[in-house]
Write a structure and sequence with these properties.
- The protein has 1079 residues and is α+β, with helices and mostly antiparallel strands.
- The protein folds into five domains: 2-19 and 36-265, YVTN repeat-like/Quinoprotein amine dehydrogenase (Methylamine Dehydrogenase, Chain H, 7 Propeller), CATH 2.130.10.10; 324-482 and 494-626, 7 Propeller (Methylamine Dehydrogenase, Chain H), CATH 2.130.10.10; 639-760, Immunoglobulin-like (Sandwich), CATH 2.60.40; 763-804; 851-1078, Phosphatase 2c, domain 1.
- It contains seven helices and 77 strands.
- Strands 59-65-64-61-62 form a five-stranded mixed beta sheet, with no helix packed on it. Strands 66-77-74-71-72 form a five-stranded antiparallel beta sheet, with helices on both faces.
- The longest helix is centred in the last third of the chain and has 86 residues, at 762-847.
- Residues 1-18 and 576-581 have low confidence and may be disordered.
């Protein structure tokens, strides 16, 4: 009795203690069958089952599967749900009781002995009996329900209020007591005896909606008039929770933290601690989707699920994040800066002014009316003397003893918005501005350093100081400047390769030295001891974003970063408290919307750690407080299940293909796929209601015991395999939660077979082998018989042929004698022809001028002449006339005898024109030579193509001039290792393609050391080299240029060697002529 009065006393003196929870609603828009949720259970697989008037909705943390009358249920109106010891789900509907074994439904109605088709409650006792409560049909027991024959036995409870008994809730206690909540009161059943309790026994109301036993063994009772407690056979009633009117209580649930969650019809959910009797209400004002609550469930991850009358279901999770916004007393929610001062006050720089908050309930606003130059505050900072400094768009404010003490504005030279503040070791306050450079406040005056003083950018975003005392200044687009505080600036930028971007957002000192730099392309750590830089970004770490807005190290030396996508908590390996090499990010935990951060982007400079170790972040929707004591690491690994198997990218009903299916997953048993239909897609899920979006899957496929497909680790809940070859396969998948807990010991597996084509089956191979062997044997026998016949015929024919051969041999002997005579005649004629050609060579050589005359006049010169045949179509010619020396390099049409004949005509004409007529003008010589060639062949019976290409020069040593004309053959001059080419007239000598030909003349002055070259096309057109290509004019020019410094004898040797090396074993294709002269 003392215990009861003590509880009543506590209940009447209760106080409200707030905890932070996050509400995640799920409605029909998310896949829920209906927004009314009457009952909730979690099965052993981890899925949440929801009873609605539109059927049963099963939620795996990612998606819903809805089961209704089309799937086999007798009705879509579902009243209650229960999982038995075998894992089967019992479903109470408006048209009977159904049980689902993961494959099919079995339904029982009044025809099977059920007292009423409207089933309101189900409970299995420790003896394996199923207790079933119905509307207006009372209570019945299904004994031995695992057997094929189901027998329902009515169980009478008499409240003395008539026969229309509705049983709304049934529970069993550890002592094997059965408690039954009805529309007429409470019944206690133990050892076959029934005790009934009503309002006469101080029950709050006879109409009971729900029952829940707590850890103390007391039974909480939700009635139409509120809640009461049944303890040791007595009711504590009326049970009053101060300032809360519960009204009708539809549902009650106890969690693992000794809290009772009470679902009301007008006040949402009440959380009541059964030890301290402290309570808190969660309703629409706190984030609940609706205040009329019909069902409550705590899952295996300690999440609370709340089913409502029209707002769907709400998942309530304990959140480590608490918001401080307008509802809590802030005058403005857009926070640009945030600190806790040495007196434990919080200072917030907002777009509506500076706010001082005592951490409980006091808020003091400093704005334009209070003396700020403008309401828009950009940053806030406390100096070593305890003064508060606030930057604004139009100046800097000093607050002393909670009053504005001094304002620095344009009169002090501060004409730009203040973006950041920093106090160095000497007490000097440094001001970073937006476009105005760096300000140094020492005393009352501000000295500015701008781009003209050495800054790379006037937009300052962050300031810190290294161990040597140098300032590090981060800018918006100019990288980092270091400053010795006097007159020397230095720069570190992206172009140096030390930092990933010139856009610096923030900088902080590390726990054991080093400077951490936040950019829009990742984080860079500068190690002051080793003078090294290391960058972490999304490509080499698991950061949620490269755009780093702010950074802070907590008391555990973990780095917190704010990005445009929320918060990341980074753990380094080795930790920041050690000095080791090989540092890398070992873990990144992301906090976003699903964790309770709904403020979006974390603002730069708006971060601090308070004296209790809590972290504070500023957003555009208020300040976020992170309670690290709630931020626990979950060691509960996801439960992984296969949910489907697609074949050839199509959903398959395996039952219709005559396959037995596995319960719940409906995966086919003993699956055998044909070889031409072996593209499969596995669907799976890792059930983890803490954060289903952060589940990582590890999947692999094994063939005949060996790994067939590489292990894949990602967040996708499916895996494709295309055109699998024949073999025995096993697919394996397990999952990991965001804290690294894997279900290695309980992966999901599926085995199947891809059958080979019939022609690869053993029986088919044996059959074909047998047929082939028989065929070969029969063929051999047939061939033997055929060959015997053919051999006899062949022997007969051989005899005939032998006789014919003897006769033919006699004829061939006669023919051979005749051919010997003809060959001797041909050989004699060839010898005569070669003798004639050699005589022609003698005549041609006799027509060539003497080389001695050339070398006497031009000692440093050479002529490299290499005919393809015995006689040549290329010829050289020279003569001295009137103190001038005329030299020609000619290439006649064709080679061999035809070319030699043309060359001799050309030589004769040149002798006549230059030697006889004393003409030395090269253009005139070519003009007369052309006419002479045409006249020589004018009596030809057919159209002639005989002629020549020629280059001709006249050398005057007295004037040191060279006159040059050419017909398709150029003149090359090399002077001081530089090559000059003089083009010829584009027409040949002797051809009739152009009438009245005019040959262009060029006059050149030569100097000592100049080299001149004339050549036919035989040298550059010669094939050879590794790819059997032409040597080309470009290569010849390179040869002439490279050797121009040497004497002409050496140059001739070089030209000859390069040609021989190029040709190798390749046949010469044309006559070759090169003439070189050096002055």
């Amino acid at each position: 009795m003392k215990k009861i009065f003590f509880k009543i006393f506590i209940l009447l003196t209760i106080c409200l203690q707030s905890q932070s929870y996050q509400f995640i609603p799920l409605t029909v828009e998310d896949g829920l069958a209906e927004n009314q949720v009457y009952d909730l259970i979690q099965d052993r697989r981890g899925a949440i089952w929801m009873a609605t008037p539109g059927g049963v909705s099963v939620y795996d943390g990612v998606s819903f599967i809805n089961l209704n009358d089309s799937a086999g249920l007798p009705s879509n109106i579902i009243n209650c749900l229960y999982e038995d010891v075998k894992g089967d789900i019992w479903i109470g509907t408006h048209k009977g009781l159904s049980v689902y074994d993961g494959v099919k439904f079995e339904t029982f109605t009044q025809k099977n002995g059920l007292p009423s088709n409207i089933v309101k409650s189900i409970c299995e006792d420790g003896f394996g009996r199923l207790w079933i409560g119905t509307q207006y049909g009372g209570l019945c027991i299904l004994d031995n329900f695992s057997k094929d024959e189901k027998v329902f036995t009515p169980f009478k409870i008499n409240f003395g209020q008539g026969d229309k008994l509705s049983v709304n809730k049934i529970i069993e206690t550890p002592e094997a007591k059965i408690y039954v909540g009805t529309n007429q009161g409470l019944a206690e059943i133990f050892n076959g005896k029934v005790k009934t309790y009503t309002k006469k026994d101080k029950l709050k109301d006879n109409f009971i909606h729900d029952l829940e036993e707590d850890v103390n063994g007391d039974v909480w009772i939700g009635t139409q008039s509120g809640i009461c407690l049944f303890s040791n056979g007595e009711f504590i009633s009326p049970l009053k929770i101060p300032n809360i009117s519960t009204g009708a209580v539809k549902t009650i649930e106890q969690d693992n933290n000794d809290n009772i969650w009470i679902g009301t019809v007008n006040n949402g959910v009440i959380r009541l601690n059964i030890n301290t009797y402290q309570s808190e209400i969660y309703n629409e004002d706190k984030g609940l989707s609706e205040d009329i609550v019909l069902s409550i469930l705590e899952d295996k991850h300690d999440n609370i699920w709340v089913g409502t009358k029209g707002g769907g279901v709400n998942k309530i999770t304990r959140s480590s994040f608490t918001y401080l916004g307008i509802k809590e007393g802030l005058q403005n929610e857009k926070i640009n800066g945030l600190i806790q001062d040495s007196k434990s006050n919080y200072w917030l720089a907002t777009r509506g002014g500076i706010i001082r908050h005592n951490g409980v309930d006091s808020f003091q606003l400093f704005n334009k009316k209070s003396g700020l130059p403008v309401d828009y505050a950009t940053t806030v900072f406390e100096d070593k003397e305890g003064n508060i400094w606030a930057g604004t768009l139009l100046g800097l404010v000093k607050i002393k003893n909670n009053k504005i003490d001094r304002v620095y504005d344009f009169m002090d030279g501060l004409r730009n918005p203040v973006k950041c503040l920093f106090q160095d070791r000497g007490g000097v306050i440094w001001i970073g501005t937006e476009g105005g450079g760096l300000g140094k406040l020492n005393g009352e005056k501000i000295k500015f350093y701008r781009m003209l003083d050495g800054l790379s950018d006037g937009r300052i975003s962050a300031i810190t100081q290294d161990k040597s005392g140098k300032l590090w200044i981060g800018t918006k687009s100019g990288g980092i400047n270091w400053f010795n505080g006097l007159d020397e600036f230095g720069q570190i930028n992206e172009e140096d390769g030390l930092i990933p971007s010139n856009f610096i957002n923030c900088m902080i000192k590390g726990p054991r030295g080093g400077i951490f730099i936040g950019t829009n392309s990742g984080i860079t750590k500068f190690d002051e001891n080793r003078n090294t830089y290391k960058t972490f970004n999304t490509s080499n770490s698991k950061l949620s974003s490269d755009n780093i807005k702010m950074m802070l190290f907590d008391e555990d030396n973990q780095l917190w970063i704010g990005t445009n996508k929320g918060l990341d908590r980074i753990s380094f390996n080795p930790p920041q408290i050690t000095r080791q090499t090989g540092e890398y990010i070992s873990e990144v935990k992301h906090f976003g919307k699903s964790d309770g951060i709904t403020g979006g982007q974390i603002n730069g400079n708006a971060i601090c750690e308070d004296f209790d170790g809590n972290l504070w972040f500023g957003t555009n929707k208020g300040a976020i407080k992170h309670d690290r004591s709630v931020d626990h690491i979950s060691d509960i690994a996801p439960q992984t299940y296969l949910t489907g198997l697609e074949l050839e990218n199509k959903i398959v009903n395996w039952s219709q293909r005559n396959y037995s299916v596995e319960p719940w997953s409906r995966m086919p048993k003993d699956l055998i796929l044909p070889y031409d239909s072996s593209t499969v897609t596995f669907h799976f899920v890792g059930i983890n209601h803490d954060n289903s979006s952060e589940i990582t899957y590890y999947s692999s496929l094994h063939q005949d015991g060996e790994v067939f497909a590489d292990t894949l680790i990602n967040n996708e809940s499916k895996r494709d395999f295309t055109k699998l070859p024949p073999g025995e396969y096993e697919f394996v998948v397990f999952a990991c939660n965001e804290d690294g807990a894997w279900n290695y010991d309980t992966p999901s597996k599926f085995s199947f077979t891809v059958s080979p084509p019939f022609w690869a089956e053993i029986w088919f191979i044996l059959l074909i082998s047998f047929i082939i062997i028989i065929t070969i044997i029969l063929f051999i026998k047939y061939r033997e018989k055929k060959l015997k016949v053919e051999r006899e015929l062949l022997e007969e024919k051989v005899k005939e042929r032998n006789q014919e051969v003897l006769e033919k041999n006699k004829e061939l002997e006669t023919v051979n004698l005749e051919m010997v005579s003809v060959n001797k005649e041909i050989e004699q004629k060839n010898n005569d022809l070669n003798s004639s050609i050699r005589y022609a060579l003698t005549i041609q050589k006799a027509s060539f001028p003497s080389l001695q005359e050339l070398y006497s006049e031009l000692p440093n010169s050479f002529i490299y002449h290499l005919p393809r045949d015995i006689v040549s179509g290329d010829f050289y010619w020279y003569r001295k006339t009137n103190d001038k020396f005329v030299i020609a390099c000619a290439d006649c049409t064709g080679h061999g005898v035809p070319g030699a004949l043309t060359s001799m005509i050309g030589i004769a004409l040149l002798n006549e024109i230059v030697g006889g007529n004393k003409i030395t003008d090269p253009a005139k010589v070519l003009e007369l030579l052309d006419k002479g060639i045409l006249k020589a062949f004018e009596n030809s019976e057919s159209e002639t193509n005989d002629g020549m290409d020629i280059s001709l020069i006249t050398i005057d040593k007295k004037t040191k001039k060279i006159e040059y004309s050419g017909a398709y053959r150029p003149l090359i001059m090399v002077r001081n290792d530089e090559l000059f080419e003089y083009k010829a007239t584009k027409t040949s000598i002797g051809f009739k393609d152009v009438e009245n030909k005019i040959f262009e003349k060029k006059i050149l002055e030569f100097k000592e050391g100049d080299c001149f070259f004339m050549y036919s096309d035989g040298y550059p057109d010669q094939f050879g080299g590794p790819k059997n290509k032409k040597l080309k004019t470009k290569t010849l020019k390179e040869i002439l240029t490279e050797g121009s410094a040497k004497d002409m004898k050496t140059q001739k040797a070089i030209i000859q060697k390069r040609l021989n090396d190029w040709m190798g074993n390749t046949e010469q294709i044309d006559d070759i002529l090169v003439i070189g002269i050096k002055f």
